[in-house]
Write a structure and sequence with these properties.
Chain lengths: ~325, ~325
């Protein structure tokens, strides 16, 4: 860790979903309630102005963590501290609104995240109106400024979302996220729905906005190359647990957890044409019935007896202080 | 790598102008207009509907007689044949007269007015109720959804005309006798409206459940919008498509329901007859040879219901891309 006081810190964050059948069906079949642990004891610290990236396969709980951090979903256990304050512990609606203004989110699908019946300038202006940041007469001016900031023309404000391409829509979504002058933005796979050629434009835009406005990002993605480009620190998620947290260079130069290594091997490399990529073995197990001990052991290449029996604790490795949850990992 | 900024403000036309001209042109080039132009059935039915609406709205101005003013009635005019002058008084009646000497054309125009009024207001009432309950049900979910949808399910098991008759009976019972004729129309509207909200509620609920999952709704939650603000300002504009279609088809159903109730004698009173009441009156004379008293109101009702129905079907098809 960097030693600064983090802007965002998640402590022992957990999310458990009740996935039971309706009670009548359950009574008839004599089944117990079923729970799905989507997020399990996750600790994250994000210093101001930095980007923390979460990587993992689908179903690993990445998006759930993002939703809990922005306050869309109440954590079942643990807490999220934003500048030392827990959003769900705030009782006054006024303070809640003040907190909401500081955190924003950019969503995965630029097609579903913009209301198709609203003009772009209304979409972007809505947070300004909701938080009452400017008098009504100045909203349009601010919207024009935001449109310019994300590389769109002022006249685009009069159009509807369907008149734009995916990349342009994501720019609109970014402009909306910036409208409330937030300090922290959760980016939930913001480029995974875009063409590869457009991805880098959007990523560059996000990086330069971070520099200009001193934004802090939580960047969620399954794409390692995107993460390598964006992140300062990376957390690897497997079945709701952080199996490895390290800064970017450490993680890519010296991946320690077998799962991290497997992900890196599986990523397609453009410079390795003709090379047979190591295929990821197996699939992510059923999160309702997780494997015993280390939940990665059925897919792991190393597995020993202890992996089946005990859940690995997080240990720190090397001078880089990479935190890895693995029994067999040694420096 | 540098940011590609597609700034081209100067190259773009002034947007205000572009919007106004293109809206009209877009409409003229749209599939809907094209489909309308190339379908004679729809042109005829929409024109028929327009004509009937005009007739109803303008009835006090255009009807040749004032049929429900006792002072202007002449019993000598009773049972005049269509397209002929009365043999005693010499008054001319295009569609004949009934037993009291009322001009059938005029009674039809006034009846049409009541039928349409009841139909339109009942549908607006059903629509408001159904849309609000559907939005609530679909957005809130849980026990509220359970209660609203079970009420809807129970109501669906009865024919809507039966529900309307039941509600009509209750309504009549609650109103003091001297106000009954005055309030009859409103009781009719409420009972037809209450029997038709289910269609709206179900459709809106389904569409709301789809929209609720979308990320723009979450973006609204994120900035702390209230439930009602999200439902009415964000979700409602996205579920209105099917509402329009159901409203048109419900209008035909409401008009027929009103006619049925009035025909059965539980609807519009004889002092303010709707088409259904007129048909009921005409029914008594069909066997004694005065066919016009029954036939013309029936044909009007047929034309009205059919044109609304055809238009509704067309609207449904054109707004559903899967059927094209």
């Amino acid at each position: 860790m960097t030693g600064e006081t983090p802007l965002i810190s998640a402590r022992q964050l957990g999310a458990v979903f009740d996935v039971s059948k309706p009670w009548l069906n359950r009574m008839l079949a004599l089944e117990a309630k079923q729970y799905l642990t989507a997020v399990d004891m996750v600790d994250i610290d994000i210093p101001k102005g930095k980007t923390f990236a979460l990587v993992g396969e689908s179903g690993s709980g990445k998006s759930t963590i993002g939703r809990m951090i922005v306050g869309l979903q109440k954590p079942t256990s643990g807490q999220v501290l934003i500048d030392g304050e827990d959003f769900f512990a705030i009782s006054s609606e006024k303070k809640k609104m003040a907190m909401r203004r500081r955190i924003q989110m950019i969503f995965q699908s630029p097609y579903a995240s913009l209301n198709p019946r609203w003009r772009v300038r209304h979409i972007i202006g809505e947070p300004i109106r909701a938080f009452d940041l400017l008098p009504a007469s100045e909203v349009d001016g601010r919207v024009a400024e935001l449109l310019d900031q994300v590389g769109l023309a002022k006249s685009d404000g009069e159009k509807f979302p369907h008149e734009f391409s995916g990349g342009q829509r994501q720019r609109i979504a970014i402009a909306r996220a910036l409208a409330s002058n937030p300090e922290f933005i959760v980016c939930d796979e913001p480029t995974s729905a875009l063409d590869v050629s457009v991805q880098s434009q959007v990523l560059n835009l996000m990086k330069s906005l971070q520099r200009e406005l001193g934004l802090t990002y939580l960047f969620i993605s399954h794409d390692l190359s995107v993460i390598r480009y964006m992140a300062d620190e990376i957390g690897v998620l497997y079945l709701g647990r952080l199996v490895e947290v390290a800064d970017r260079d450490t993680l890519f130069d010296k991946p320690r957890h077998p799962y991290t290594r497997m992900l890196m091997d599986a990523a397609p490399h453009i410079d390795a044409f003709g090379r047979t990529a190591e295929i990821v073995k197996g699939e992510i197990p059923d999160p309702i019935n997780k494997p015993s001990g280390c939940s990665f052991h059925p897919r792991c290449t190393l597995t020993e007896e202890i992996c089946r029996r005990d859940r690995p604790e997080v240990r720190e490795f090397g001078t880089e202080k990479a935190r890895v949850a693995c029994h067999l990992c040694a420096d | 790598m540098d940011i590609q900024t597609p700034k081209g403000a100067s190259a773009r036309p002034e947007f205000k102008e572009a919007v106004t001209t293109s809206t009209w042109q877009r409409w003229m080039n749209s599939d809907i207009w094209h489909s309308y132009k190339s379908s004679p059935v729809i042109i005829i039915s929409s024109l028929t509907f327009l004509l009937l609406v005009l007739g109803a709205v303008l009835s006090p101005l255009i009807s040749p007689y004032t049929p429900f003013d006792p002072a202007s009635l002449n019993l000598m005019n009773g049972f005049t044949k269509p397209m002929s002058a009365n043999e005693f008084t010499g008054d001319y009646f295009l569609l004949g007269t009934d037993d009291q000497g009322r001009d059938v054309l005029s009674t039809i125009l006034f009846g049409l007015r009541i039928s349409l009024f009841v139909g339109v207001v009942a549908v607006l009432f059903a629509m408001t109720l159904g849309v609000v309950l559907g939005l609530l049900s679909g957005y809130a979910g849980g026990w509220l959804d359970g209660i609203i949808m079970r009420i809807a399910d129970i109501q669906m098991t009865f024919p809507s005309i039966m529900v309307a008759m039941l509600l009509y009976g209750i309504g009549k019972g609650l109103i003091p006798p001297d106000l009954r004729d005055e309030m009859a129309i409103w009781v009719l509207i409420i009972s037809i409206g209450l029997s038709e909200w289910v269609q709206f509620a179900r459709t809106v609920r389904g569409a709301t459940m789809v929209e609720r999952q979308k990320e723009y709704v979450q973006a609204g939650n994120l900035i702390g919008l209230t439930r009602w603000s999200i439902m009415l300002r964000h979700i409602l504009p996205n579920v209105t498509g099917p509402i329009l279609v159901i409203a048109t088809i419900s209008l035909a159903l409401a008009i027929i329901a009103e006619a049925t109730l009035s025909f059965l004698g539980v609807g519009a009173p004889k002092t303010e007859p709707s088409l259904g009441t007129l048909i009921n009156v005409g029914r008594q004379y069909i066997l004694s040879g005065e066919w016009w008293i029954l036939l013309f109101p029936s044909l009007t009702l047929l034309a009205l219901a059919l044109s609304v129905n055809l238009f509704g079907d067309w609207l449904r098809d054109i707004l559903n891309p899967k059927l094209r």
